[in-house]
Amino acid sequence: MILQAHLHSLCLLMLYLATGYGQEGKFSGPLKPMTFSIYEGQEPSQIIFQFKANPPAVTFELTGETDNIFKIEREGLLYYTKALDRETRSTHNLQVAALDANGAIVEGPVPITIEVKDVNDNRPTFLQSKYEGSVRQNSRPGNSIGTLTAHDSDEENTANSLLNYRIVEQTPKLPMDGLFLIQTYAGMLQLAKQSLKKQDTPQYNLTIEVSDKDFKTLCFVQINVIDINDQIPIFEKSDYGNLTLAEDTNVGSTILTIQATDADEPFTGSSKILYHVIKGDSEGRLGVDTDPHTNTGYVIIKKPLDFETAAISNIVFKAENPEPLVFGVTYNASSFAKFTLFVTDVNEAPEFSQYVFQAKVSEDVAIGTKVGNVTAKDPEGLDISYSLRGDTRGWLKIDHVTGEIFSVAPLDREAGSPYRVQVVATEVGGSSLSSVSQFHLILTDVNDNPPRLAKDYTDLYFCHPLSAPGSLIFEATDDDQHLFRGPHFTFSIANENLQNDWQVSKINGTHAQLSTRHTDFEEKEYVVLIRINDGGRPPLESTVSLTGIILAVVFIRMKTDKGKDNVESAQASEVKPLRS
């Protein structure tokens, strides 16, 4: 391997000397930043330059974007081993450093730039091999059909990538050749000599060539001549007569079939027909669906018919194309048709003005107060009688004629709010049809519930004799509506005679603590009366009793049995002690 390396270096040196690279300052020189230009595609093993360095440098090192192509010999010969490709990398950024015998850098590294110069080695290519375009018949010469785009990978804005387009062949050559042209450099395909007729030739095929200075590529273009919308739809008859329907005819029903024809090219926007109701249906109760294959129009009911608002309607249709008509062509009377719709009456139930009626009153309103009203209307104009259904608490009554609703008993928010009942509207006479709506009565709160204990407090006792003052905690509540803060009760001893023995202290808005003031109590049951005030508007208060507060004695009985003491305890009533 060592012998081969020496032979390779010797060959490079001989090539270097043979090509004249050894001239001082032209093909060799000191280590410094340099730029070299090399054409892509040249034969490999070409020497680029020989670098020289001063002692103690004995060899050179090459780093950077070498792509395993660029090499440097110990003697400083920089060369490349493969043909370069500008399209792969147009610039190689290298670094060269001089090393001593130990491999340490003593000079550099310096940047070496290799610029790869372009040669025309890439064939222009189209984005696709076949294109399709269209041109309207009667289009004027010069109208654009489309633009073809080809790509060349050689360097941009040079002769190597300058592309030229031309039409190689047109088939068929009817009514003549040269009907199309393509802009040489832009690739825009245009109509050239005259307008086309679909009836003469519906399709043309072009062969297009793109070329640079050395290469050529072909693609194929299919051009379809499309019809223009120069024919209007024509109804087969202008008057479809009279049609009578009941007003309860189902929505979605097809009630009439209409037909127009169009002489333009079938199954295009020029021949497709859309039908519109342009007169006699301001409420939009009718619509027309078109069969895409036959252009038949099916008139359907979109919204319920109504004898009371539109007993007779003179309907006018217009047949149109989705594609605009060409200049100079307009729709005329042939594109319009009519029919007369008669709607017969059907007895209908009364209709409420809304599905849910809602009212709000205070729960303490006086009996006989109007709390709300409902309204309904009979489509045939008959009188209506109102009644209530579901008034389980017997709080309300309704005026059968006006629909006004009154209270007939005291209302109570705590018993139920909102209070929901049904209102029935029944036509007077006819078939007595009826309909139902909802009435929701929202009751606002008043302070009408006095405070009370939250639960029963029974079996309360302290052990007698008291060794220390005792206490218990109790909770109060009421049934009124409170803000998010909750109630704020105040507490006090109701009987002045008990205030020397007992005291009550507030813990928060709902809880308080009852405590003994001393320990000198007799063994008996005590009833303590507590006054609770809610601070409402108006304020309400009540007096509650904590009964069964028993001071119970624990008996200790002692006796002697054969000289030994024996202690037994006698139990009082089985109740739970409070804190003491």
Automatic annotation (TrEMBL):
Cadherin domain location, by residue?
58-126, 127-235, 237-352, 353-453
Record's keyword terms, sorted: Calcium, Cell adhesion, Cell membrane, Glycoprotein, Membrane, Metal-binding, Repeat, Signal, Transmembrane, Transmembrane helix
Q: Where is the signal peptide?
A: 1-22
What are the BP-aspect GO terms?
A: adherens junction organization; calcium-dependent cell-cell adhesion via plasma membrane cell adhesion molecules; cell migration; cell morphogenesis; cell-cell adhesion mediated by cadherin; cell-cell junction assembly; homophilic cell adhesion via plasma membrane adhesion molecules
A cellular component term from Gene Ontology for this protein is: catenin complex
Membrane topology of the entry: Single-pass type I membrane protein
Q: Name one Pfam family in it.
A: Cadherin
Where is this chain's protein located in or outside the cell?
Cell membrane
Q: Which GO terms describe its molecular function?
A: beta-catenin binding; cadherin binding; calcium ion binding
**Protein's UniProt keywords contain Calcium:** yes
Q: Which PANTHER family match?
A: CADHERIN-17, CADHERIN-23
**Name of the protein this chain belongs to:** Cadherin-17
Gene encoding it?
A: CDH17
